[in-house]
Amino acid sequence: MLANLSIQNYALIDDVSVSFSNGFTTITGETGAGKSILLGGLSMVLGKRADLSSLKNTAQKCVIEAEFDVSKYQLRPFFEENELDYEDTTILRREILPSGKSRAFVNDSPVTLDVMRALGDQLVDVHSQHQTMQLTDNDFQMKVLDALADNSENLTGYTEELEKLRTASKELQKLEDFQADADKEHDYNSFLLKELEDAKLKEGMQEELEEEYEQLSNVEQIMEQLSAGHQLLNDEQLGIVGRLTDLKRAFQGLTDFGADYKSLYDRIQSVLIETDDIASELEQMQEGVEADPERLEVVNGKLQQLYDLQKKHHTDSVTDLIVIREELAQKVDAVANIESKIKEKQQEVDTITKKVEAWAKKISEGRKAVIPKLNKRLQANLSSLGMSAATFKIEVNPSKSFKTNGKDDLVFLFSANKGSNYGELKKVASGGELSRIMLTIKSILAEYENLPTMMFDEIDTGVSGEISNRMGEIMQQMSGTMQVFSITHLPQVASKGKYQFKVYKEEGAEGTSTHIKQLTMDERIRELAEMLGGKSLSESALAHARELLQ
Known about the structure:
Elements: E1 2-10, E2 13-19, E3 24-28, H1 35-45, E4 62-69, H2 76-81, E5 89-96, E6 102-106, E7 109-111, H3 113-123, E8 124-127, H4 138-149, H5 152-198, H6 205-217, H7 219-234, H8 240-252, H9 259-288, H10 293-312, H11 318-336, H12 338-384, E9 391-403, E10 406-415, E11 423-424, H13 425-428, H14 431-445, E12 453-457, H15 465-478, E13 483-487, H16 491-494, E14 499-508, E15 511-518, H17 521-533, H18 539-549
Parallel strand pairs: 3-13, 3-14, 8-12, 12-13
Antiparallel strand pairs: 1-2, 1-4, 4-5, 5-6, 6-7, 9-10, 10-11, 14-15
């Protein structure tokens, strides 16, 4: 419930702080006194958008703070989901800075306006005159049926499956679109893939082929140089191997004369072994080198194939060609298997559709079952509000498509007078009739929705006398299970409040400002008497006011 509301520098308000209690509270005041300003301030702290026009003094910030007792309303999961500190006494604060920027806080933690609005929706139901038109909206009417049918669990299941269905349907559409586009490119991609597969690409092949090509192209030069090298190493007169052998022999006799000579001998022997090995390898290479025009042509052809592929695919490496080959393979494979994928996805869509249909059926059955009950309640309550001939025609019919709240079309028609044709509420009901119908529906909903606070803004507009007295009684009854506020001009309604507050204006040196105060019993009598008979209080008006408060 709303325990305290503090407003600073908002519209005509300089600084107001007021505490509230549970039960039924009425708020009265002359037209233009600022009752709507008070409601506007509350709406701001519940998440309504704001701008600089909200500031009374544009050089100072506006601060609106509302304190709620939420201990009985199982809101802890909401706080955990939004990573907020939970407190049984929760404080919502809104600040509008002179720069025009707005900040929102829940228990001193900064939050987005969406989070504040979502929390506000669970704390207060503000019913303004404008919102009476919600009554003519099919979504609101369906909400009433769902509340009476206790459809919350069914709606949750339906919403979850509907979201899955929409996701799967989008994926199916993408596959079908892909198939339509891919068919056009499939043949060309297959041709490109075959070219790359025929090339038998592997890492490093280009370097190997280019090396082999250079060797095959220069066989004569290689053979000539190998022969010359072999000659230098193995010539009988001047060959390096023979000369090193002589050098080794010459130093062999010196090894006994010291470590230095032994070390030098070992090094000569090592060079001789390495040189002899080189000579043997040169001889083997000579034997292995021979002209091979056919192999040269094959290698040249493979290299040319690689160069052509690189040019076609705008790259200069075999690595890139391998990547392109894999991508093409995926595209070709995707097209080749698209039929099976579409079939599989269609089966998934069909399965989910059956689940959505099952939830929608439960929702629809629940709605149909409570229609007689709702009709009976509406007619009984409206009869006590001076609409004894009012009747409703409520039907739930199957829709052709899934909606956010089920698969039903709702017919919600109204007739105010006996023998009159049924018509849509917005077309056949007057403003006063809409107000009475809305109050009746709100009172019914209050039995099914665990909402801490309900605030009515002049819902009694267009009614008077005994009807207004009955409307006050209905709000008084509602306050047995929730906190109820009513901003009213009617003394019959105002008198039903357990508490009564008055909104009034004062003019000072710095301008006009709005204030609010809780009335004592004597002040309530005087206020009600003025509402009944005007400023010039008569004894009969005072007596009537006392009677209303008894």
